[in-house]
Amino acid sequence: MHTDPATTANDPPRRNFFKQVVTGALTAVVGVVPGLAGLMVIFDPLRRREQASGDALPVTRLGSLPADGVPRRFRVYADRRDAWNTYKQIPIGAVFLRRTEDGSITALNAACPHAGCSVGFSDKNGGYLCPCHDSEFTVEGKIAVASSPSPRALDALEVEVRDNEEVWVKFMNFQPGHKERHPVA
Description:
By secondary structure, the protein is an alpha+beta fold. The protein has 3 helices and 9 strands, in the order αααβββββββββ. Helix content is 19%, strand content 30%. The strands form 2 sheets. Strands 1-9-8-4-3-2 form a 6-stranded antiparallel β-sheet, with no helix packed on it. Strands 5-6-7 form a 3-stranded antiparallel β-sheet, with no helix packed on it. Strand 5 (120-122) and strand 6 form a beta hairpin.
């Protein structure tokens, strides 16, 4: 077994002995259980904890939301990690942000709860429309027409304004087609 004289020269003999015993034991375990090291590499992604769904993410600046009550669409970006790669600032969804005259800000997920299609805002109708199956929603995100195929209203999200200028949203996607909201993991 190779030891670095610079590292071990200043260590008390007991500590040096302990390091050698632990290193030897770990080497023996990996040698006795073939594939243990490989299994540790394979299952490593399960031990990692990527950014939790629902963490607040920066979306825009407060100045880009006029107080006219008309929703504005913004993409949401986040770092994502798969088993062995990290992807920086990729689009993970979109939100509609709306600031009213009283200064309150609301956020709605831009995915239709019926089938997950991306909804748009219609100035003409004053509400949201889904191009896939004609679901209609009010400016507040409620179902506008009783015959709408959407099982629920647009999904509202939590908003926070930080430093009086940054708009952050606790972004989550939800499973489409259900009456209740089920977060997508």
